[in-house]
Design brief:
Radius of gyration: 42 Å
Number of strands: 7
Distance between the termini: 92 Å
Largest sheet: 5 strands, mixed
Number of helices: 12
Strand order of the largest sheet: 5-4-3-6-7
Shape: elongated
Strand content: 5-15%
Length: about 425
């Protein structure tokens, strides 16, 4: 006899599902695959997020390293920002050219230099005669001996310094009609005792040209010529002389505004303990300096040159300059060279950055040689050569910075 299971025809175990038919999908396997695929997609999203974050951090590290390397030789930072870590002074242009040519200048005068030397004058102010008293061999008296020759040596020195006091007396005279008329004092003679134009000019020179502070200017006048000038008097003299330059400054401002090329700059300065900005406008013959609490357009308008300037304005690229659209703008090549030196220190940027720096220097020297030869411009073939090299270096720089080029293109095409 068979069992109940056998009688019912069920040969499987209780609670265990039957195997799927051949070729039918397994529901549990499909669920596992779907779950794994979802996990992979989620993980890919996390990886993409992390990769983007890593790229941001890498760019931030590069920026921070560039800031740490930045100094006055490879960026727009002023030399005062270098602190105690600054290197030795950079050689002047002649020294750099000599170094590039593999030569080293010897101390002293250089070949071809005009030179300067102290020479004797034909008519000295004072002559001092030195006579020998006794014979160098027998010891005899030489007081009445004939003079058979003399050797002259001249000492060039300052005269004894001191104040020259000139008294002015304004007489009062009575006319035959009985009226008494007094003479007038000359301009500048305005007190019973006052300093003359020489002392006033010396105070302005020591402070304005030699950059002595007011108190040290007063001390120098006292030490050198015995003029016991108070610091307040020096300050008053400087203010009065500045007021007397109004017409001159107006003329300089007009000529600078009409110049074909002018250089503009601004730098921080302390005035009464607060930050102000010293603005400059200059050509090879004229310079105008103005101080203002602001750095931007308000200060530039107050200086009075840029609002009417229509030539080539050479500057450091500070954004306020771009607002003067009537001018043609050019970046200062000194700033270009410093920033190119900073770019050359970055990974993958050395080739184009050093190439551009070399091109700028070479073009500058070519212009200097042309001017020295009497030309007013470079010949067209050389200009075409420089333009072609310039564009090739620009293209190389874009290839080294594809992301920057894409961002630049997007900025220009954005509606």
């Amino acid at each position: 006899m068979g069992t109940a299971d056998q009688e019912g025809g069920n040969t499987g175990s209780v609670g265990v599902p039957d195997d799927p038919a051949p070729g039918a999908p397994d529901p549990s396997a499909a669920a596992t695959v779907a779950r794994l695929r979802a996990e992979i997609v989620a993980r890919d999203a996390v990886i993409a997020t992390l990769e983007a974050r890593i790229s941001q951090l890498d760019a931030h590290v590069v920026e921070l390293e560039a800031r740490l390397r930045a100094n006055s030789s490879n960026s727009s930072k002023p030399p005062s920002a270098d602190g105690l870590a600054k290197g030795p002074p950079r050689p002047d242009r002649a020294g750099r050219r000599a170094a590039q040519a593999g030569t080293r200048r010897k101390p002293g005068g250089q070949p071809g230099a005009p030179g300067a030397h102290l020479a004797q004058v034909e008519h000295p102010d004072v002559v001092v005669v030195h006579a020998p008293e006794r014979c160098g061999r027998c010891g005899g008296e030489l007081a009445g001996a004939p003079v058979v020759g003399a050797e002259a040596r001249q000492v060039h020195d300052l005269p004894q310094l001191g104040l020259l006091v000139t008294e002015h007396r304004a007489e009062r005279r009575r006319c035959g009609c009985g009226t008494v008329t007094a003479a007038t004092f000359p301009d500048g003679v305005r007190a019973p005792a006052c300093y003359g134009p020489g002392v006033r000019a010396a105070a302005c020179y020591l402070h304005g040209q030699q950059h002595l502070p007011v108190q040290r200017t007063a001390q120098a006048l006292a030490d050198l010529v015995g003029a016991e000038v108070a610091s307040g008097t020096v300050a008053a003299i400087l203010a009065e002389c500045a007021d007397g330059l109004d017409g001159f400054i107006d003329a300089v401002r007009v000529q600078l505004a009409a110049a074909p090329v002018a250089h503009f700059d601004e730098t921080g300065a302390r005035v009464a303990g607060r930050l102000h900005w010293l603005h400059s406008a200059s050509t090879d013959r004229l310079s105008l300096f103005s101080v203002h609490p602001k750095r931007g357009r308000e200060a530039m308008d107050a200086a009075g040159v840029l609002p009417g300037f229509q030539g080539v304005a050479v500057h450091d690229g500070w954004s306020s300059y771009a607002r003067y659209q009537q001018a043609t703008h050019a970046r200062c090549n000194a700033h270009h060279l410093r920033e190119l030196a900073g770019a050359a220190a970055l990974p993958g940027q050395r080739a184009w950055a050093t190439g551009m720096a070399a091109l700028l220097i070479e073009a500058k020297w070519a212009v200097e040689r042309a001017v020295a030869a009497g030309a007013d411009q470079l010949d067209s073939r050389r200009l075409d050569h420089y333009r072609a090299r310039y564009q090739a270096i620009i293209d190389e720089g874009w290839r080294a910075n594809p992301a920057a080029r894409a961002a630049s293109a997007s900025a220009f095409t954005r509606p």
